[in-house]
Amino acid sequence: MKYDIILCGVGGQGVLSVAAAIATASSIEGLKVRQSEVHGMAQRGGAVLSHLRISDAEIPGDLVPKGSADLILSMEPLESLRYLDYLKPNGSLITGGDPYDNIPNYPEIEGLHESIDRLPKSRIIPAKELARQAKNPKASNMVLVGAASSTLPLKMESLKKAIELLFQRKGKEIIEKNLHALDLGANS
Amino acid sequence: MNNLALLGDEALALGAVDAGISAAYGYPGTPSTEIMEYLQRIEQQKGKPLARWSANEKAAYEEALGTSVFGKRVLVTMKHVGLNVAADAFVNSSLLDIQGGLVLAIADDPGMHSSQNEQDSRFYSEFAHVPCFEPTSQQEAYDMMAQAFDLSEELHVPVMVRLVTRLSHSRAAIEVKPARTENPGKKAPDMKQWMLLPAMARKQWHQLLQKEKKMAAYGETTPWNPLTRGSRTGLITTGLGLNYYKENMAEMEEIPSHLHIGYYPFPENKIRELASNCDEILLLEEGDAFVEKRLRAILTQNITIKGKLSGDLPREGELNPDNVRGILGLAPRETLSVEKMELPGRPPQLCKGCPHTDTYLFIKEVVAERKESLVTSDIGCYALGALPPLMVPETIVCMGASITMAKGAAEAGMENVMAVIGDSTFLHSGLTGLVDCVSDNAPVTIIIVDNSTVGMTGGQETRLESHRFPPVVEGLGVLKEHIRLLNPLSKYHEENKKVLREELDFQGVSVIIAVRECIEWLRKQKKGAK
Ligand code: SF4
Questions:
Q1: How far, in Å, CA of B335 to CA of A119, rounded?
Q2: Which domain holds residue B282?
Q3: Does a structural domain hold residue B67?
């Protein structure tokens, strides 16, 4: 088993927490993981990309080759389209539907959604709204992990355990809210 | 956050701890910053090793020399361009009789994710005649530290370990080994070997050339430079080039003969051996064409060499699993064929609510009033003010250059010259420039944007607190009435403009200190307080 994921969004949208959640869940299942992150300048409101590779065998490198990603999981629609070259011909794309508009020339949202809908396997998730329902507006990213849970080669149980581990220090309430967000995403 | 897997930077840091370091010094710089941050977390939990940021890379390196002269192991961390600053100490230190192992962990940034150039630190290791290890995985970053420290003590030389961004900032699980204990403190036995007066330095230079033979011999036998026999095509990989080769290996028709170089000085004999059985040599090097440039001198026979210099691999940017396919004889991978939309870029920008934005807004308006002006700037978050919509800084070169370039421009006759520099950058390399300005009474206006932290690299402490800056500046000789403190908030916008106008009109050295905290740093402080 080998599963390559492109995670993307804008600096500050919680891409690294998504990576940590999926990577931790994979380790819980005894799989090998390699994950490349973006630190430094690009984190300041720029486009952020993380490569996450899961496998039951040795993983040769940290970067996903073009045409090899099983999944693009994006926090927002414009960024979801930036890395299509990485997607396998039969790969999936899952993205939050709400634009993160911090540039003067952000494209029309309808056009973006149309482009996403045209892809063979794509889903647009109203992540912001679902996070609001989970009473944790910051948890859009965990909604998206939930939305990807049926596509990922991981058990829901492991994802839940991973979230508990990651938010351990922040207390029970935050854990609950994030688990709720995960569930809402999974049922979306 | 994720305990199960470590960043390359963190794996290296843990390797250093388990190799028995007593201390670590460094200056923050992407992608090396997380090495020290990890060590500081360990220090907090266990009380050691001592893990300290320094005022700049040169200071860090020299502080480490002090640890070594007392026989203890020490790590120095910095980014590639930081070694330009520490070069004086680094290059000379190879002539010393290193006692406690001294390892320089340096992180290069091919592709310039967060840097102003792509310089390859391997050239520095060769220039200073010191060995260099280059890991290709988090596990190797951990494992190589023990050997780097052992070699440093065996040959009494500093040793470099070179990381690149992709490894520094990628996570994987690693296996750790039993930790070695620290060295006891013991002064170097022969202090003559620590004094580089000409007569002694000549002896030390002779010694170093003898040591260099041992460094080279180590390269021929170390398992970090493995040679395997395959087809009549010879492949040499260095650094992450190895990973991208492995990624594509399964698709290759024939497995080439292969030498991987994980240690320098690279093994010349192994290269000759590889070439003697091959018709052509391919090179996958992460970084500059360091080995490729030297191959011609080693291989006298007529043999095809393909790499970056021959144009078979891009010379700019990083290697990746895709751009190495051509040289390996593979076609590009099939990707999804869909009609692609033209997408606007999303460059990094100052955070919403960043104090620098308000500073630049008032500078911008005053600049617009003047016929001629120059705004030199420096390295840090505030450099992002050069991008739209602010577009205020006009020069960004290297740490501290804002002040000295401003002086040069003002002395060349330019009017309304301003230097914008951060608090940490000012302490790193701005003080000396200010001394020059004061000595010659140069008509420059220096604007220190003091946000209480090293913002760009994620909020490390500045070496001096804000209230110390005015006395420091005054102590260097700037007139008290031309040291102006202000708060860059929009409600003081007009007042701040007035201050800048007054100081630009003054034909001498002015220092405006704009004090307001970085909001990311404030957030971090709040989190820490909880
Ligand atoms: S990190 Fe701090 S200094 Fe840097 S852009 Fe954000 S607020 Fe400004």
A1: 13
A2: 227-306
A3: yes
Q: What is the mean pLDDT of residues B71-77?
A: 98
Q: With respect to residue B487, please indicate whether it lies within any of the assigned structural domains.
A: yes
CATH number of residue B163's parent domain: 3.40.50.970
Q: Whose CA is nearest to atom 6 of ligand 1?
A: B351
Do strands B6-7 and B21-26 pair parallel, antiparallel, or not at all (unpaired)? Answer: unpaired
Q: pTM of the entire structure?
A: 0.95
Is residue B327 assigned to a domain? Answer: no
Q: Give me the DSSP letters along chain A.
A: -EEEEEEEEETTS-HHHHHHHHHHHHHHTT-EEEEE---SGGGTTSEEEEEEEEESS----SSPPTT-EEEEEESSHHHHTTTGGGEEEEEEEEEE-S----STTPPPHHHHHHHHHTSSSEEEE-HHHHHHHTT-GGGHHHHHHHHHTTTSSS-HHHHHHHHHHHHGGG-HHHHHHHHHHHHHHHT-
Domains: count for chain B: 3
DSSP state of B112: -
Nearest to A40 among B5, B173, B456 (CB): B456
Nearest ligand 1 atom, CA B350 = 5
Q: What is the mean pLDDT of residues B36-52?
A: 97
Same structural domain, B214 and B283? no
The reply to whether residue A42 touches residue B344, judged by beta carbons under 8 angstroms, is no
Tell me if B113 sits within 8 A of B130, measured CB to CB: no
Structural domain count, chain A: 1
Please tell me whether residues B105 and B208 are part of one structural domain. Answer: yes
Residue closest via CA to ligand 1's atom 1 equals B455
The gap from C-alpha B150 to its chain's centroid, in whole angstroms, comes to 24
Question: Which of B196, B221, B246 is at the close of a domain?
Answer: B221
Cβ-based contacts of B139 with chain A (< 8 Å): none
Residues of A with Cβ-Cβ distance to B340 under 8 angstroms:
81, 84
**In CATH, what number is assigned to the domain containing residue A126?**
3.40.920.10
Whole-angstrom Cα distance, residue B357 to residue B9?
32
HSE-CB at A119 with a 13 A cutoff on CA atoms is: 29
This model of the complex carries an ipTM of 0.93
Q: In this predicted model, what pLDDT tens digit does every residue of B165-190 receive, in sequence order? A: 999 999 999 999 999 999 999 999 99
Clarify whether residues B213 and B190 are in a common domain.
yes
pLDDT tens track for B261-302 = 999 999 999 999 999 999 999 999 999 999 999 998 999 888
Beta strands B263-264 and B132-133 are antiparallel
Residues B359-394 pLDDT 10s: 999 999 999 999 999 999 999 999 999 998 999 999
B136: nearest CA in chain A?
Answer: A61
Spatial distance between the Cα atoms of B244 and B370, rounded to a whole number of angstroms: 54
Q: Which residues of B touch A44 (CB under 8 A)?
A: 348-351, 381, 384, 456
Same domain, B198 and B231: no
The CATH number of the domain holding residue B275 is: 3.40.50.920
Return the residue whose CA atom lies nearest to atom 5 of ligand 1: B350
- The structure tokens listed for B78 are 């910095």
Domain end, chosen from B206, B221, B236, is at: B221
- Find where tokens 């009473």 sit: A135
| Closest Cα in chain A to B319 | A63
> Structural domain of residue A175, as residue ranges?
2-186
Please tell me whether residue B488 adopts helix, strand or coil conformation.
coil
pLDDT at B3 over 50: no
CA distances from B443 to A182, B378, B436 (A): 60, 19, 12
CB-nearest partner of B30 from A20, A39, A62:
A39
Residue-level pLDDT at B358: 97
Confidence of residue B528 (pLDDT cuts 50, 70, 90): low
Q: Considering the domain boundaries, does residue B245 fall inside one?
A: yes
Q: Does B488 contact ligand 1 (Cβ within 6 A)?
A: no
